[in-house]
Batch of 2 targets.
Target 1
Amino acid sequence: MLSNIFWLGTKELRSFFSDWVLLGLVVYSFSLAVIAQARSNAQELHNASLAIVDEDNSQLSQHIARAFLPPYFKAPQYVGERDINRLMNTGKFTFVIDIPPNFERHVRAGRSPALQINVDATATVQAGIGSAYASEIIATEVNDYISRTQGTPIAPVNLVVRIAFNPNVTTAWFTSVMGIINSVTMLAIILAGAAVVREREHGTMDHLLVMPITPFEIAMSKIWANALVITVAVGLSLAIVVRGLLGVPIAGSVPLFLGGVGIYLFFATAIGIFLATIARTMPQLGLLYILVAVPLNLLSGTNTPLESMPPLLRAIRQASPSTHFVAFAQAILYRGAGFDIVWPRFLLVGVIGAAFLGLALLRFRSVAVEAS
Amino acid sequence: MFAYTIRESLELMRDPIRLGFALLGTAFLMLIFGFGITTDVNSLTFAALDRDKTYESRAYLEELRGSRYFSEAPPLKDAKDLQDRMKSGQVTATIEIPVGFGRDVKRGRPTEVSAWIDGAMPFRAETIRGYLEGVHQQYLSDPAIRGKGEASAPLAKTEIRYRYNQDFDSIFAMVPSTIAMQLALIPAILMALAIVREKELGSITNLYVTPVTRLEFLLGKQLPYVAVAMINFAMLLLMAIFIFKVPLKGSFLVLTLGALIYVTTTTAYGMVISTFTRTQIAALFGTAILTVLPATMFSGMMTPVSSLTGMGAIMGRLFPMAYFVPISVGTFTKGLGFADLAGYLGSLALFIPGLTLLSLVLLPKQER
């Protein structure tokens, strides 16, 4: 039985390597796509567009304007007050700071004047982080400027904030590895699923079924072959792209992580085969695939923080291995966690994966029998 | 050309599963994404390591507990516990209050509270840092804590005005962007598969042997999918308004016009992918990979396209969604009309001849 599985698997590998476009797409998704995500600064405050309405025109207001610097903000541009609406409507500027007349005079007189930051709240990520940065910059600059002339009291308690595991909060560390993880889910499901549907559409499934092999062997061969391709791709991508090209330090053990990838792939390929037993044609599989793979990725925590989801979705998410995959990937690769910390998640992914595999095999057998 | 349209429509009608998925699937995804994609950071777990255990240290932590963003996990026992729980991701932030904190505060001597934030997800870490600073400022301005020192007002106040969305609730930006994403994904995939399917099953021979031109072939196949996508659009619009309660403040006509141009471009995008793929699996995977990444990352859903750098910026600008997101968000949440959005509509329209031409060049009239 094992040798059947092995030989069928090599057939699978051969057909995979003969589709150049597919091969190219796999390479792309583990290299260029990862680099593009890592270098894009899509999830941080970077190059935010800022305009200043300076109605004060004092030394202080110029002092503030000069403090907004790249890489966080683009160099500020001066605009007139009546242009604010138009410029924010078209999305030209995400932030518009309005410094009122006599601002410096009021500050010096201790009248605590208010300065306004207009934020385009539809630029979700930037708006949140950016407005905190902007008010901090302004507060620092005002204090700094005034203390040079008047002297200010020291705050009694200081808060020292340090970011663990990624001291400079470099987004590339996060986005590169999450890019790989997204590709794993996307690839594993479609490769396994399409391998089954293709055989059915071309009628070669019947050839297989009349041979002395069981549906279980067919399914297993597809699983190991596809899982192997992806695990190797992940390993190479981590070593060459993430570590080499992007220079992301990896805190934990790569073999441990790859072991986790292997376990996760059982689940992902099983889903693929399961979907293939429901779909009759490739377009149907494609739609089913999108319905499953894209939510698995988006809700796994690779893109947006998980804590903020509504309770029902959070519960569903807890049952999804992709969530645990992301959690242990982050724990191992960023925080250097060892097997002693991540094993419960490994186990959970393994158990859910095995359950799905069982379900997929059951369906696969009945569909295969029905077809013959 | 219309013969192709009719044939393709018939094929779609006869495949209720495909049609059903195209419609119901979109609705399902909309529900998941609309509720699931959020950039609001809240319900964060923090744990405290209170080495001081005085009235003052508890007052400081009380300020944190009062924040709507944080919920407290059991207190930390020691430095080892802090490290372990940060590593496993059980807590996202920890606060350590040093011995002698209460004494120093009472005497007015400067002292320090230290916080560790889990940096695994940088965006979240930055946001948490902002929250912690906010809580800290609040603590400082609390007159009960400042004690003897007179409560001095800050030198200047900053008022933050969140425009278009006063509560800064990400749903008002995310739902309109999600509509844009859905209309990119499913129409492109359906379109790509429709063409590659003919290649793989061999029925594309019809194109090779009959006098049908390539343009007729492509446009004929495209029309039914544009129609399906517009039905999707209507459905998504209703869902946004009635389920997610995101009101359409701006011009309905501009949004619909934008959507029509947009789905024409996204089906054309699928068409381009179909021309260089030969198997359905490659077309499917190719469309998914080439759509999902630019759609979720580089089209202004998370970050304005103007702030992207490197390859992401290029991918974003070459993807039609980057021009439809401002239209969708603009009409829904910013309440805009034609005058403000004409530029985006124009850029979007340019994609139609561009992508169609590209597919014509890439699709051979004869098999090679």
Target 2
Amino acid sequence: MTEHVILLVGAASSGKSTAIATLFGTAGAGTGASAAESARAAGAPEVEVPGQAIDFGQLELAPGEMVRVYAVPASGRYDYMWQILKRRAFGVLALVRASDAAPLAELESVIDEFAELQLRGGLLVGITHVDEVTQVDQSAYQAALAARFPGAVTPVLTVDPRDRGQLITALSVLAASVESRQQFED
Amino acid sequence: MATSGAERDESGIDGWRKVAAAIDSMRRLSMPMLLTVVSSQMPPLWIDLSTGRYHWEPPLSALPESPGEVTVYSQPIEAGNPPYPWVAWQPMDPLLWEIGRRAFRDHRAEWMRTGDRYALQRWPNLTEIAHTPEEIRMIATLANGFLTAQELGLLAGADEATARRVLDRLSLMGAIKTASGPVAPPTVVGGEDTAVPGAKDRAQGAGLFARLRDRFDGRQS
């Protein structure tokens, strides 16, 4: 079985669960124990399920090839399951709520956590809930990423977790980023 | 262009190219400027280059293929004091993408030079822009180094003319930068006018990007 693991990370109410439901519908998504079962099926060792729920969805690309998307809370980053998923991840879609008290501080914590994935082209920042603020200064997010990764260009997009088309665009950009980076490294 | 007042286009044919050239010229001044585009065939269009926003009364989908006879007014504005705060300003990326689509369909952007190398400076906000999978692939490719239009086409599995048009539009948006001196071509293309192994396959759907997109799109129906 070939699998492509994509993580949706973000603070509470950044839109992770909504995004999973929008992408996969209720039939394809689950939380808690069922997510753990899916992670084990993907090769993760038998471990106790941490207390925090993990929403997930999956899509068969071809026989024997799956895309699995896990929504993991940023606050769970020290959990064992979280670390397993991070190691297996092909890419990360980091959701930052524009109306957070300190969205750039939230972004900084994500940057530190996923530096290694970013170097493989596997990090995309999605700014959510932009309708709750008067204006989103995307350049501030881009500047924070450029300061941490000089010379690299990390995609920063506004994303409405209720909009399937926007989520597909974000996942497409993530996949294209990773593939093009591999092309240059081959 | 139009730095001290207005530029008038009598032909109507190259209206969007005139507007694009004015935007590029004003951006190079690196000072807060407001452009007002007055046309015979559409309501006035305001572009605030200092905050990257625009205002146009109709929806962007109503932007005409040609603006007809066009005059572009430019005026300096005070930094930190955006004009007309009572107006519903919108982010500029979608507007410039659409102006670029119309302006550079048959002509190159006049400030772009064949053989120059360009690299991505920032990702355009693609969730707000009508785009093709081919355009996503090209933009992702540009994030990895300085490329000519020919190299970009080879790497992304597109023809050179299409790559040129994407470069022109990204340049109008201020999303790419030009190599400041001689830059060796990336080893993946080696400067040869030959197809890059795997590029065509990826473009035609063999890569994860294309399959992921197709599969999700298929589920939408």
